[in-house]
Amino acid sequence: MAPLTCTKLSVITITGVIIQIIGLSLFVFGFFPVKPALPGTSGSESFYAPTCDFVGNLSDTTLPSDQLKSLYQELSGIPPSFDRLILMVIDGLPAEFVLGKNGKPPNKQFKEGMPYTQSLLASGSAIGYHAKAAPPTVTMPRLKAMVSGAIGGFLDVAFNFNTQAMMDDNLLGQFFRIGWKMVMLGDETWIKLFPRLFERHDGVSSFYVKDTVQVDQNVSRHLGDELWKDDWNLLHNFNWYYFQILHYLGLDHVGHIGGRSSVLMVPKLKEMDEVVKLIHSSINQSQGNRRGRALLVIVSDHGMTENGNHGGSTYEETDSLALFIGLRNHVFDYAPVIKQIDIAPTLALLFGVPIPKNNVGVMIREAFDSLKEDQHLRALELNAWQLLRLLHAQLSGLPCRNFPCDAFYDHQSSDSSECNHTTENMLCCLYMEAAALYTSWKSKRGFESSSNKDYRSTAAAYYKFLKSASEWLSRRTTDKPVKVLVLGLATMFISSVMLSNLMFCRLREIYHGGKQQASNLNDSMNGWSFDETFIISVVLILVTCMTSSSMVEEEHYIWYFFISTFYLLLLRKTAQSLSSVGLQSSFPMQKGKSGEGYFRICCIFLLLISGRILRGWHQGGVNWTSLPDISKWLEQAGSQYVKPLQLISAILVISIGLFALFSIESKGKYFQMVRLIFLISGLLVLLHITRYQDFTFSSTNYGATLLVQIIYAILGATTIGTVVALPWLIPLSTSKISPTDNTISPPFFPSIQEKFPLVEFRDSLYVIGWAYILCWCLLQLLLQQPINTTPILLLLLQTVASVLYFLRSGTHHKEWVEIAGFYYLGMAGHFALGNSNTLATIDVAGAFIGISNHSTFLSGILMFVITYASPMFILLSLVMCISTKSMAHLVIPEKENAGDLLMMMLGFPCLVPLVINSILLTAYTVVLLLMQNHLFVWSVFSPKYLYVCATTVCTFIGVFIVAATGSYTYFVLAKRKQKACTRVYSTCSS
Amino acid sequence: MEESEKSSQSTISSFQVFSIHVCRGLALAKPENCSYLKAISRGLLGLPVGALLNALGALALGAPVGLQYFERTISWTLLMSSLTFVPTACVYGSCWTDWHRIFACTKPKGPLDFMLCLPAHGAVIGAWFGAWPMPLDWERPWQDWPICVSYGAVGGYVAGMVGSLALALMRTGGKQLKAE
């Protein structure tokens, strides 16, 4: 194989990276489909047929609620049959417990557990359904689906993870707009979703899963009160409409503790049955008082597995309950299956509000039995119009797009042979057929004789359209395009093979290519030593561990364990080399060497100790977060301990950085300026910490924001200025060998130095590297939570210690091992700063520091900066790490040219992170594909995948910075040297 | 209650192991080099030193810190010390070159070195692997801090013993064949 040249290497690397980006984006968009959602809310326009220009009628949103309500009633043509809605949510109740499975009645103990409900079902006054829930079967997305009728993609779930208020069109908002009063008792998720809608609420936290009694008592204790209060309102002739939500968490908690067959299950069912009985009797009573009718809807948000867990997509989890009490009596032989999203349009139509805009559900047939024929058909029409609008939004090529404009649509329809070509055609054709039948039915309404048959066929046609449209729309949101996924995975695989292959080529060239040089080098350079095996097995073990959900949750332990094991291995290796020369000999030179050994041991101890403190700083993960850790301990101790610690750490970080900048012996004015500016910005950061950091989260302080913006500007300008200007300004030295180099083998060195200013290159990379490090650290001091300041100091110490260790150990370790060690250090630090594989640990508050007006883009960048502080820090410090390396001894003297040297300096620092990351990324993609039906795919594996993607982005950015800085500096210096040489020659010749 | 029982059990077992080791060390130590008494005293001295080193290693790798773990950590380190440190201390005392040969370079010479080196390394590697189930959420009693690590260590130690025995037998067998 031909030896790699610099150009070839960079071209292949860049190709690999681009391929990887393409593959990753293919996979991500295939796996997490982004659902096009219509913005805004449905208004009175939803009672008209879709028009050509879908401009929402905004005027009616400003109407007062009374007028809006009468407007809706007038337009819809369906008189609302209820004026009270009680939505009782029993968290985690599988429909099987109440309705049985596959036509069989439920288990005897469960049946006996709910005698009242069963009697209602038997008499037909309750209508029960198996309501199929869509994954992820966790509470918040399910509640959203129930009230909006829409199925959100995973990314919606991920982005709304912190349960922000629900912005999409939903039933609660519609009810609120027409002036209903809302009451919520139970799970506080509702309050987070709809923060301002409830008139009264009493939320309970769903956090303490061990509590199965108190959560439900907190709901039930208000029950009599609420029912009584209602009567009181009636007594005083308040014409208020009530939407009451009762959310019982206890049954879900029982499941989490003991599974389906827990001994607590039957008593819990009995308790729920009592509640149903209480509510139903109060409804009957109030109906006796000639009050308006009330509808009781009992739903569960999801089912549970045999062990009581939920989140996945098995039958047991998706089999949730929907029970309507108060409709016209209807007895089923066995309960039919509907979708959970069907609840939303049904309730909207029953109560005379517009169907939520993104609804995918179909109205439930039996719920409208009590309506007259024309009202039923009108309801169907409204549902059909709403779905048609949604279809228009998702299918731009819908052929019946402009039909209402043409007004000929009723003449050209009812040709069912055309209904089979494409989805668009079929849906369109089904709709036209139904609409045509409806028009003809309307025109023939006067003649009683034929209308019954026409009514049936019209209703059937409408249901056919609704079912197929709903099917298509909901499949679109959950279906995964297999081809795209496979293509994306294959592309990622190819790119990681490319990159790894490239790295192994480099390895072979460097360590086995030049045999004549191998003899010069240390013995350990050739053997496959233990630390290298370890570095490779880290990747393998990690990949294996990622297939287990518990290990994904507790990934930080793996990294801590690996990194400290790695340092212990280094310690062992140092001990090996130390005593092999140290004790037996009395030569002064070798004594110096043993001093080096002790220095290295000190470095490793520093690494181990600071690593251990970092490990104890945040108790991350999922299962052991409640255990004590240093940050909790400090926060409990109070701010009088946190603040001084923070200040000391910040001062130490700044002084280490400045000391490192000062340690280079150069007297150029430019260096002085760089130091001065960093000193000033450090002082500004300290000022911000002492003065403002207590207030930044509570209020938007103008002074604080301005100060932060000034710091951003100074840091950005200085760093970029340093990178751009330094290579031009650094004085070209005339001395041949720098005094710090003692590992460079003398024969090759002068020739390289003649051609190329190696010393200047390393000096400027050193300064630029420290500028990066200092800039990044100051940013982190500014942005991170106060408690995280000390971990940043420890990370900096670890980086410096490992750079010093590898510098002093010379050729004992191969370069790729060092870089991989750095990368692992960065990952361990990532978790030490309090991050985990759940999206809940992302620091959202810090993302708004120094931003005066809300910008998603800027705060997104800041969030990334905060979350990926440690991996990015390590990648940036690679620039400094490169500058301490002396690669001159590895250049083959005969072939030496500029490109070779650059490849020597930058090859591994760029390749190793890319290779490790691409292997992890590809392996994790495979894991995600394998696990796509796993219980925790949405709660554990998918968030982890988002983190993996973000790590990939971080690696790309970091490697790009390293490579760009290195090559820029190199080319500028080479050009200057060339000029200087020609000038020397010309003066000589003249 | 149960935990303290367990830790006391492991303390007892660690002392048993320790006494076995002293005996073994005595058997290995050649009488012409040093007396039995000397070997015992070396072993007794080596026990706390090894325990300290093991404790430091375990803490660096993430053993929990805290008063409630103190007793358990101590008993575990005593166990580890008697598995790894004491036998070599009995045989070689404080001779740095031998220690270096066995532990830093892993270049044992002869059956005696094998009997010391392989079980000790086996115990350390076994303990390392034994720590893996600890962070998992299985909620089993044996996932508590020193228990599964001790199982791993003992398992690795036994494997090392068997391996060293087999190696020693092979070597001596080979030598005898050559001699014949």
Automatic annotation (TrEMBL), chain B:
<keyword id="KW-0472">Membrane</keyword>
<protein>
    <submittedName>
        <fullName>Formin-like protein 13-like</fullName>
    </submittedName>
</protein>
<keyword id="KW-0337">GPI-anchor biosynthesis</keyword>
<dbReference type="GO" id="GO:0005789">
    <property type="term" value="C:endoplasmic reticulum membrane"/>
</dbReference>
<feature type="transmembrane region" description="Helical">
    <location>
        <begin position="151"/>
        <end position="170"/>
    </location>
</feature>
<dbReference type="Pfam" id="PF06699">
    <property type="entry name" value="PIG-F"/>
</dbReference>
<dbReference type="GO" id="GO:0006506">
    <property type="term" value="P:GPI anchor biosynthetic process"/>
</dbReference>
<dbReference type="InterPro" id="IPR009580">
    <property type="entry name" value="GPI_biosynthesis_protein_Pig-F"/>
</dbReference>
<keyword id="KW-1133">Transmembrane helix</keyword>
<feature type="transmembrane region" description="Helical">
    <location>
        <begin position="73"/>
        <end position="92"/>
    </location>
</feature>
<keyword id="KW-0812">Transmembrane</keyword>
<feature type="transmembrane region" description="Helical">
    <location>
        <begin position="112"/>
        <end position="131"/>
    </location>
</feature>
<keyword id="KW-0256">Endoplasmic reticulum</keyword>
<comment type="pathway">
    <text>Glycolipid biosynthesis; glycosylphosphatidylinositol-anchor biosynthesis.</text>
</comment>
<feature type="transmembrane region" description="Helical">
    <location>
        <begin position="45"/>
        <end position="67"/>
    </location>
</feature>
